[in-house]
Amino acid sequence: MKTEIKNFIDREHILSILKESKEPCAKEIREILKKSLEASQALEPSEAAKLMRVKSPDLWEEIFSAAAALKKKIYDNRIVTFAPLYASNLCVNNCLYCGFRTGNSQAVRRKLSLEEIEKETRVLCGEIGHKRLIFVVGEHPSTGADYIASALKKIYSVKVKTKLGFGQIRRVNVNAAPMSVEDLKKIKEAGIGTYQVFQETYDEELYSKLHPAGTPKSDFLWRLYCHHRAFEAGIDDVALGALFGLGDWRFEILGLLTHARELEKVFKIGPHTVSFPRLEKACGSKIGENKISGQDFKKIVALLRLSVPYAGLIVTAREKPETIRSVIPFCTQRDASTKIGIGAYSHVYNKQELEKQQFELGDTRSLDEVIGELADMGYITSFCTSGYRCGRTGDHIMKLLKSGGESRFCKLNAILTFREWLDDFASEKTKEKGEKLIEKEIKEVMEQGERFGAETKKTLCVYYERIKKGERDLCF
Ligand code: SAM
Ligand code: SF4
């Protein structure tokens, strides 16, 4: 299909929606929340804008509760964890907010070799216990599709013996520059999970101020259509995001929503995940920290949850622990044990160099600590990557998510993969908490006759026992 390239983000239309100031009544808001809870499709921008105009604190509490209930309905009480692997900070762009930009003379430039990527992977999957990574690079001729494809193959090839089984990365998502269909086919062939590119800001005027002319990133439309190209290349899990704090957050939510609806319209598949990084102060950047308050951030995440009901939402360690706790009920994924210095997991370079990284992290706690905290809050950590490997991607997973069917798989696979992690990597303290949680989860499955059939329950028990004996990667 030949795509007509035009800016589908209608700036004037979004600005006119945002200009409206009439506060909607409670009845209108509740109708929108009901539509969202049905989860079948993204909201209309005008509906999302109504939610934004709510002033009553009580009504906001209803919005937060609906967002949490929606998350539970679609994904159950599981949180998937992952880690970023920053492989190179070489970059030809000059994004004013980023520590990797070419004009930042303070940055020490590094690009990991395949051997160094292997070292990083060994720590991530063999010592910490991650199963899922996001591979991140700046934009540079030496870290294009060929480099990324070789890196993916290297990462998937690493297998490390653990206490009871073995550790291996089962899913590598990629956050890299927009690419051509031809290049995207190369990374598809190497086994990419989700292709993640953030538009940064959907306001084209602001975009041109932040991305100097003459750099590849200054091409707003090339970036806006990279997910379309990914679909053309056969990658059917794509991820959207905006860098919150650059412009008006309300505009960005409507931009993200319009983008999601465009993908739904053209490809019948919306974004697999949506990210909402908040701007952090970066090394050598004059652009300060974002000015979005914690309360507004909570509103942003709840509104995204309700606006694009089927999409996974990712909160990152850019945020402080208390901020993450406030939005985790609406989210599906978070990172932990995160390091963003190039080669930082395996100490490829010295500490001083690493300090000159892309931006500053808010949550530097270990995966073990994070999992313990999630367990205290009643969330089971899932290392599940099975959806992709069992063909539950693209429109297949969209249908399951929209119908609420995916939450069954989420629950079962969370139990199995959590068991693996507890036996291989948990500290005594976290293991104790994890055991209690797993017992509760299994009990819930056994008691839910309608949701889980007898055969499923039997398979769960068989798989669970086999995993306890050291077998790995059994899933639904
Ligand atoms: N170079 C690729 C690109 O720009 O799409 C991918 C790598 S870039 C490091 C990944 C993301 O980091 C960007 O899309 C941007 O949203 C985010 N980022 C850049 N500077 C940031 C900052 N100061 N605070 C928070 N996130 C930032
Ligand atoms: Fe380079 Fe991406 Fe940073 Fe821009 S955001 S300077 S493209 S790494």
Overview of the molecule:
It is a single chain. It is built from 20 helices and 11 strands. The chain is of the alpha/beta class. It folds into 2 domains: 321 residues, TIM Barrel, CATH 3.20.20; 66 residues. The strands form 2 sheets. It has an 8-stranded parallel barrel with strand order 1-2-5-6-7-8-9-10, surrounded by 7 helices. Strands 3-4 form a two-stranded antiparallel sheet. α4 packs across α12 and α15 packs across α19. The longest helix is centred in the C-terminal third of the chain and has 20 residues. The chain binds S-adenosylmethionine and iron/sulfur cluster.
What distinguishing features does this structure have?
476 residues, alpha/beta, TIM Barrel, 8-stranded parallel β-barrel, two-stranded antiparallel ribbon, 20 helices, 11 strands, binds S-adenosylmethionine, binds iron/sulfur cluster
Topology readout:
Elements: H1 11-19, H2 26-38, H3 45-52, H4 57-75, E1 78-88, H5 114-128, E2 132-137, H6 145-157, E3 159-161, E4 166-168, E5 171-175, H7 181-189, E6 192-196, H8 204-210, H9 220-224, H10 226-232, E7 238-241, H11 249-267, E8 273-275, H12 294-307, E9 312-315, H13 321-327, E10 333-335, H14 351-355, H15 367-376, E11 380-382, H16 386-389, H17 394-403, H18 406-425, H19 428-447, H20 454-468
Parallel strand pairs: 1-2, 1-10, 1-11, 2-5, 5-6, 6-7, 7-8, 8-9, 9-10
Antiparallel strand pairs: 3-4
Helix pairs in contact: 2-4, 3-11, 3-12, 4-12, 4-18, 5-6, 6-7, 11-12, 15-19, 18-19, 18-20
The protein binds S-adenosylmethionine and iron/sulfur cluster (SF4).
S-adenosylmethionine binds at residues 97-98, 100, 136, 138-139, 175-177, 197-198, 200, 243, 277, 279-280, 282, 318, 358-359.
